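Support reply, case 0932

Customer input (verbatim):
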Amino acid sequence: MKTLHVIPMVRRNGLTMILLGMVMTIAMIFILFFLREQLLIPAISLLLAGLMTAFVGVLKLHEPHFSLSLCQDCLQYHHKYGGWILKWRNIQRIDQPRIHLGWDLVALPYIGLKIKDYDDFLTLITPRLAVRLLTEQRAVLLQAMQSEQPNCLGGSCGSGLLGEGLLEESHFRSPSGQRYEGVIAMLGNRMTRLRDLLGYDLLVPDNSLDRPPTDFVHLLNQYRRESNLIQIN
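Our regenerated output:
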């Protein structure tokens, strides 16, 4: 299988936004010298808008050029604070996580990965990336708790939670018995909670993809099936 490198949607139009922001900023600076006093506020507003547009463009281009790499034997996730690797054989399920909204099931803007062996993942991830993942997942964790376990927000869903249920314990023991401490342990506990709430251990945001989530799920499952067939043969 050919390795596929995914250029994320979050990087799209970054250079265009920088150029547009620079043009707006320079134009407004030039125009400010010739405007009457009563028109200063609109001009300053456009100047600030130009600066903000350029800044957002810089942030877009600061993201990794590739967000995911689909290889013959593994899936790699690239983050500006590090990355993780999962063997296809260690992935049990791939799909979009969903939560209950009234009587309906609503898809979240993520790709969910349910893995078989926590140790193969936790032993390779860096503490720096673990901290970022814990921070970035707070919003979806809160949303899932409100939908699936609303009593947790009141502190009545059992022990092992800190604060308002959004913080994890810094001690974790994997199903195989291996012990972890610190932020890696917190990430292990977070993965366990996400599995209980959503059915998945890891979440990849949809702005890291290059196509709609449903199409990307199909692509990932195709790579996983073909990799498993190669290993069998």
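We compared this against your earlier run and they match. Two observations from our side: DSSP finds seven helices and 13 strands in the chain. Residues 158-164 have pLDDT under 50 and may be disordered. Please reopen the case if you see a mismatch on your end.
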